[in-house]
Amino acid sequence: MRTSKRFAVPLSAAALLGGAAFVVLPGAPGATDPRPVATTRAEYKLDGKGSRLTVETETVGLSSMFGHDHKFVARDLAGKITLVPGTADAATLEMTVRGDALNLVEDVSDDTHREIETALREAVLETGKFPEIAFRSRAVTATKNDDGSFDIKMTGDLTLHGVRRKMIVPAHVTMTSEGSLRAVGALELRQSDFKIKPYTFAKGTVRVRDYVALSFDLVARR
Question: 37-221, superfamily in CATH?
Fold first, then answer.
């Protein structure tokens, strides 16, 4: 299988959660009256068709010049983002994608298309044993930009190929004019960290680089 020597990509990724806020209201002369103001968390459901997770691989080895890099896209995403609108102090994201939902995006023959997708599902991801890829956030740090958007780093657990590992996922989060959330980001992932053996072919002279590029464009609606 081949991979892309450029790393774009799709998983994917963020939102904002909050706690109680406190304000000081005027009371009797010379006194202040701190009262808690309740904050309401909003839940945004991932738009599986409007969102995208992209995986790009790169071919290396003695004969890599004869190989091809590959790009896979999954759109059938599920999950939710919860947050207190207008804040970015914390966030929760839950997202899952079926391993067999990753489809090759490449202009090749039908036979080659089937061969590459079969290798991904059966030899690499082993989707029969591990059907889902999942991410669950645990903490978020965020910086608010002048335009009201946020640059965030979301720490959470990625479960892939039966292995769960802590990951830090960067994202740029915006609110659309329709009131939905959009999170865009990219990172690299090492296959061997998840007990995935990089795919080889041409008698081992060509192999897929251990690091693959992930990118995501997530849209979530209330």
Answer: Lipid/polyisoprenoid-binding, YceI-like (2.40.128.110)
